[in-house]
Fold each of these.
Amino acid sequence: MSNDINETGGAGPSHRGVEIGVAVAIAGLAVIGIIGATRVGTGWSAEGPRAGFFPFYICVAILISCAVNLTQVLRTESDGAVFASWSQINKVLQVVIPTAVYVSIIPYSGIYVASALLIAGFMKILGRYGWSASIGVGLLVPLFTFVAFEKWFLVPLPKGPLENLLGY
Amino acid sequence: MEDIGNLFHGFAVVVQPYNLVLMVVGIVLGVIVGVLPGLGGANGVAILLPLTFSMSPTSAIIMLSCIYWGALFGGAITSILFNIPGEPWSVATTFDGYPMAQQGKAGEALTAAFTSSFVGALFAVIMITLVAPLVASFALRFGPPEIFSVYFLAFCSFVGLSKEPPFKTVASMMLGFALGAVGLDQMTGQLRLTFGFETLLTGFDFLIAVIGLFGIGEILLTMEEGLSFRGKAAKINLKVVIQTWKELPRYWMLYLRSCVIGCWMGISPAGATPASFMSYGIAKRISKRGFNFGKGEIEGVIAPETAAHAAGTAALLPMISLGVPGSPTAAVLLGGLLIWGLQPGPLLFTEQKDFVWGLIASMYMGNIVGLIVVLTCVPLFAAILRIPFSVIAPIILVLCAIGAYTVHNNTFDVVMMLVFGVVGYFMKKTNYPLAPMVLAIVLGDKAEESFRQSLLASQGGLSVFFSNALVSTIMTLGLIALFWPMIQSGLGRLRAGKKGVRVAE
């Protein structure tokens, strides 16, 4: 299996391992789907196919294709290709972790405060910008979105204690 | 003749000042979306879709389709100036566009690219104007089995035409169907696959999936590759434009061929990306200057751009006439129709004349406006790319989060978006195609409905899908498309066998 993205060198988890992991994960979802489908009935009732009829066969199809994909991966010898080098994975995590924090604090802080923190933090830590630039952009973008969404489009976005304090 | 009257009526709708403003806004946003890595046509439209909920459907589709045209135009800017394709369909444009920019001919390359995009789109729009009403009136006679067979054909073509391994395409597509099935069953009103989670009652919204898979997933990929943008200066003035335009008519044959390739690939769900590669490949083989391709040949810019735009536009033909989108972006637009309360499919042409012909007229107008906007504002758009990724990335993340939230005013959707983003990253890295998955989430309910209705009529026999000439033909075409990879290798082996050549295993 050729993969031209990963010729950057450096150690990392093997591409083969991730490939197997993805196939197993999809198969796992299919098993959950089959369980769910059998709960609502996969056969026929008086008014035709039951609710689980279509999802059941869809999930069976997923299982079959996952089996084929798995055997194909297992049959080929490991060529030593890495999925991504550790430094690349590190970079990806540098985005995933702040974003995970971001989406989990939105219900509590509101989207504007969370966005300001995300942008400023991202610029300061990953972009190595000075405090003034980071805080400046971090404040301007949420302010602009606030005006655009709350005033122009009249689409309310989640707000937190700060907005309440300001009377919104 | 009636259609021409309708078209003029459509133009009258489009040139209303409010719609014209939306058009320009759409184009500009679209180009920005096309230029920025991590934002593409599909998720750009998905993020902005919730803002149009309160607009009239016609105004909404004008703005959203213009974002699509803008994104198609925008991909070329980054390809030529930065050697970074902003969109997958502009990868082939980098082959000759960037070398031209290196030789100081960026202006010529950009003019050629934009003009070719325009020509390709115009050709496809004319084809849509002529063919779509016919297809729609023909499709009006379709019953559930025929409708299902069209879906079947569309999804099978994905398996046959996609360059990803067939079983990965199937897995990803079926996963989309399964996700689409979660929640309320349309026909029995029963809840399914929710496992008691209240948040799953409404199912997985495809807009969240699109924003996550394409938006967040793309940012993660860009982050991993550690892109740094070092671009060529964009100099474009009227003199260069006119000089290039004088040269272009010479390549009329190339244009015609690229347009036909584009339209053909666009109608089948293969889409713009393979169309651009195919057109480039054929142009390289046929052209007298084929040896010079890849070193900055203007024909190498014209061919992929014309085909990509023709394909991107032609992808809307099956969407408006049959309700089957030809590309992920068309799928998002189709999802928009459902949200605005319109029933996509052949009935649109009889019941929503204003809407359909407004959309078609906006394709003409949008591309003209688009050409003018990109020709005049290239330096501006190029400047956006000079903003470092560490500033752009969090802003795109914020935009994606806002887009995901506004779909249902639900913060849980924002969490789902991130989950889809990580899933998209892994799927993309392991060659699972994302487009069939998105299409399956959008069309899942309708495909299932037509499937179950057909089975109801036949009391469960699959023979209903071969009950008359029309449905059998479409189903057979679908089966051929499904098994195309096998048929192809079988034919190849046969041919090799005849010549007595041993095929190296």
Amino acid sequence: MDRRKALKSAGVLAGASLAMPSLLSMLQACKDTPRLEWQPLFFTESEARLVGALADAILPRTDTPGALDVKVDLFIDTLVARAYPPQGQEGFRAELARFEADCRESQGAGFADLDEEARREVLSQAEQEAGTFNRGVWGTAVGEQKPVGFYRSFKSLAIWAYFSSEEIGENILSYDPIPGAYHGCIPLSEVGNRWSL
Amino acid sequence: MANYNIDAKKQMTYDAIVIGSGISGGWAAKELCEQGLKTLVLERGPMVEHVVDYPTMNLDPWDMELREALTPEEQQKHYKGIRSGFIGKSSEHFYANDQENPYTEVKPFLWIRGHQMGGRSLLWGKQTYRWSDLDFEANARDGHGVDWPIRYKDLEPWYTYVEKFAGISGEALGLPQLPDSHFLPPMELNCVEKEVKNRIESAFPGRHMIIGRVAHLTQPLNGRGQCQYRNRCSRGCPYGAYFSSNAVTLPAANATGNLTIRPWSIAQSIIYDEASGKATGVRIIDAETGEWLEYQAKIIFCNASTLSTTQILLNSTSNRFPTGLGNDSGELGHNLMDHTYRIGALGTVEGFDDKYYSGRRPNGIYIPRYVNIDEASRSDKFVRGFGFQGGGGRGGSQVAANESDFGGAYKDRIVKPGPWEFFITGFAECLPYHENQVSLDTESTDKWGQPTLAIDCEYKANEKALNRQIREDAVDMLERAGLKDIVGFDNEHEPGYGIHEMGTARMGRDPKTSVLNGTNQVHGAKNVFITDGACMTSSSCVNPSLTYMALTARAASHAVAELKKFNL
């Protein structure tokens, strides 16, 4: 394992040394960037920043908490670290890198360093290209699922992480752990937001 | 709590042994204990005591580090079962370990198992319907398989008997093809389901859409609490509101003082005595120590679940039965059935955006069979029929993820309920084909050195024709009901997905073509009773568990009567 890792990082470094300008701009960008306030289990610091920036752009803080307020980025890191098999982890990493590379190509900088307008442009483009999930019945997608782009998968993951966080699940969504009864037809105004559980 | 006697070391001889503690085994234990028989229940997995051993029953998603996600190790442990889509963190401990319990898929087959006290009664869907003579006469009518040795009237009092104790909620309809149960009050349809029901029933005279009939209490019964609408059933219910062996039958058996339970006991074979022509006991492997032991009893109920029961019988060889206990007919292991599943349609319903529901109802709708029920409804494309389950609700987070938007306004919008969706999915009857079979795979053994099961089963032309009709009818019904964005689907899959395995030790009238008689006794070993899914002669399109319960209570009553007459 360690040997594999070492070879991999050697490869990354070799690649980087052939592309001095972008390495320089990366280093420069890093200088202005505040350090992460948490220690990722799986992601590198720059990957973690990208994950956080993406989740924040999809689900920003309004007068209710945003994705970062409820640590969606930390949860995704934990999930990839503990629930993804090695191929899944590497796949996630590669998709992040591809997203970031596309972003650099179209916007000239990594996603985390873009302003709001540029981020919106990137995500609008991604929305167009990422396909959609088939609807599901009892936890299983129906019909033949066409491949779904990384952005759609990430967005779905971020929404799941957001909705299933304690803060959102208990205080923003309608939370009732023991309903006691089923009422099949009531005014939506009596409930408000969607049920948490 | 219950204080079960689990010390089977002291005593090796009982009046009765029940192999397995799932839905039918629990009933066998209750009936035999209540009629005074000292009964040993053998369970291959650990104890799961009601409430005490439901570790996840009250967890919210955020109480679990990975929420419902599984670690790679857990995914490996359930590498086959995970295909079902049902296994998440909160219930994975109630699904058997596929790595430790291998089976051979000669053709693809999904075998979902629950290796613990209570078995799959902790995990089942709880849909409970009586079968009718449309089902019990089916084989005789169209010539597939052999005739059932019983008819509805034989089972009717036993349906009532088990329903009164299990607690079945539902609505009476008076349909001959789906006889009414002894009902607790029905659960409620939601507004969209009511509307779709009205539209389907007026567009298709003779079709009905009802709330599912389920083994959930809608009012307290025998000290059990009623459903609290949490929909966390598969974690174990702290209120005992749904029927499981753990909450219902095993405590009743235990209350008699006649019950001993032996967990970690893998039934290796049933011991047959050639001199008396009867079984004398059960040979077990202690799953913890690897020790082999023999327990004796006058009668044996084998309720290990359809395929495991047959595996035990195939393993129980003797000079008299060289190919497995009760296999004079050559039918042991054959005629495996399931229900086809995952074919149907879904769509969205407009006009109810200001309506919602409260409570998480562990139930949906049911559309009883309407084809091939009489001359007028006869199809020339297939024999037998299908029913639908389904339901309506407001869209989940996947809908939000698909929406082409993001940002603050988007976030504030998706915390509101999504659009109303409604779906139906068919369950079709499968014919009993001799060539759909299981056998012992002596090449491949499990960690206890026992041959594993090789499963060789596939759907054929009749099932495929039924599936095509299901999809066509499902789309048609949703279209006529005015739904939008309708998607018909056929997630074609191998048998086993229905988790309604039936057959492989069928009941019949003739010992030459069946394994069991009309009271579930093994031909040639009358003190061995099989009352789980293995005994089924045909598969109906109707969920089978209630019929296992009724057959078990009936067979237990017969067993005790025969025992008293010294006939066993």
